[in-house]
Design goal:
The protein is an alpha+beta fold and 349 residues long. It has helices spanning 3-11, 18-26, 35-55, 78-94, 160-163, 232-242, 261-271, 290-303, 334-344, and strands at residues 65-69, 75-77, 97-102, 109-110, 121-129, 140-148, 172-178, 182-187, 192-198, 203-208, 219-221, 254-255, 273-277, 307-309, 329-332. Bound molecules: 1,6-di-O-phosphono-beta-D-fructofuranose. 1,6-di-O-phosphono-beta-D-fructofuranose (FBP) binds next to β5.
Amino acid sequence: MSDSSIAEHADLGDFKTLEQFILEKQDQFDHSSGSFSRLLRDISVAAKIVNRDMRRAGLLDIFGQTGVTNVQGEVQKKMDALANKEFVLALRRGGECCLIGSEEHAEAIPIDASSESDGHYIVLMDPLDGSSNIDVNVSVGTIFSIYRIPDELPPKEATLDDALQPGTDQVAAGYVVYGSSTMLVYTTGDGVNGFTLDPSIGEFLLSHRNVKTPDRGRICSINSGNYHAFDQGLRNYLNWLQEYDEDDPNRPAKTRYIGSFVSDFHRNMMMGGIYMYPATQGNPEGKLRLMYEANPMAFLIEQAGGMATNGEKRIMEIEPTSLHQRTPLFIGSPDMVKRAHAFLRGERS
Ligand code: FBP
């Protein structure tokens, strides 16, 4: 290795791979048998494969639709199917997972414990979030939520009921954003850390340690095309955000809406902001799925000092009833979510 590259690495004092970071943390983890480290390794391997194909998507026949309508009633995109396949394969091969829940599968995917796993982890995932943006080169992501079944429960007996736990029971959560660079961001309840993929060495490297979101920001992410379907309290909040106030540096707010929840969430967590997908006449339960979109991001934002609610209640305290249930979502900087609540309750107008 040349002197200059040694010097370069020396400068990167924190030059730490995802695996090195996990192993360092492993001792703090109750069940530090190494199985969690291996599970996160499996997720990162699948993310690298999806990233590889994503970067060449226009050259491969992976744009467009599969023609299959998934359990959400959406026509599945080829990249949805590809990402789903890669994550399911990696989790099966890895042997640390006993049950998988995916946006692309109506039922939970059991893992045949006899041959494939004696793992105690349940992974719920949105293999590719932001489907509407895949074919047009706009950043998309993968979201995952991890639960653990009780030690005394044999893995092969794990069922969907074992997955339907409130978000407060998550042992870890994270996402991968396939944007200008590819990042994997996760929490195990001990802060939020981000790793950037260095394609030259194929490693996720620690780039964002202990992420904290500002108490307040200037960014509002909502599909304002639904404005007329919002209830009056929310309209009042949006109008208030857009007002000029010389004493308030955060108003008028900036509207930023990519249409990929992962990307909007990531930006807002880093810069300060609020993402909202409320209930509307068309979507009385909201659009986003509780178990593999709202819960994992709620765990992350709370660990970063933010808030996530359904407009009234903490997202992570919602008792789930089904794998694909939806929820209204207000998530981001704490002062902005609290302010939205005040308008929703009509305390502000
Ligand atoms: P999927 O793409 O995984 O179905 O996720 C839902 C989603 O695309 C979010 O990523 C995004 O924030 C939202 O729906 C966009 O919805 P809309 O087009 O109604 O604003």
